[in-house]
Design brief:
- This protein has about 120 residues and is mainly α.
- It folds into two domains: about 50 residues, no CATH class; about 40 residues, no CATH class.
- Helix content is about 60%, strand content about 0%.
- The protein has six helices and no strands.
- The longest helix has 15 residues.
Length: about 120
């Protein structure tokens, strides 16, 4: 049985190996540190909950801030359990050769595919 972390790692490696990212020029970014004040118990509970899914608090915050910078909005967190399970099944079926996932060569093509 494939778990969430395995699917997440597969999707992450697929994105890193995509033609789009290989063609895209990368520049060295300067890094800033962000400090926030939060109740230590709240932080511990959040870290424990995220750890169960193989995600660090730092990675989550980087993802949210990057999404806001690139998309002018935080990533959507309104996904139902049924949608998540269907997505995981789709990836597993693709990995097992039972179905082929759609591929896109540009952001415009991806957006068009998502709107259908």
């Amino acid at each position: 049985m494939t778990n969430f972390k395995q699917v997440s790692n597969y999707l992450h490696s697929s994105m890193l190996n995509s033609d789009y990212l290989r063609r895209r020029p990368f520049t060295m970014a300067t890094k800033d540190k962000l400090q926030i004040e939060i109740d230590s118990e709240v932080r511990k509970r959040a870290e424990n909950n995220l750890q169960m899914n193989g995600i660090s608090l730092t990675h989550l915050l980087q993802t949210i801030i990057t999404s806001i910078a690139n998309n002018r909005a935080a990533p959507s967190t309104t996904i139902t359990e049924a949608d998540l399970l269907a997505s995981i099944d789709e990836v597993i079926n693709s990995l097992n050769g039972k179905e082929e996932l759609s591929a896109y060569t540009s952001l415009d093509a991806l957006n068009k595919g998502l709107s259908n």
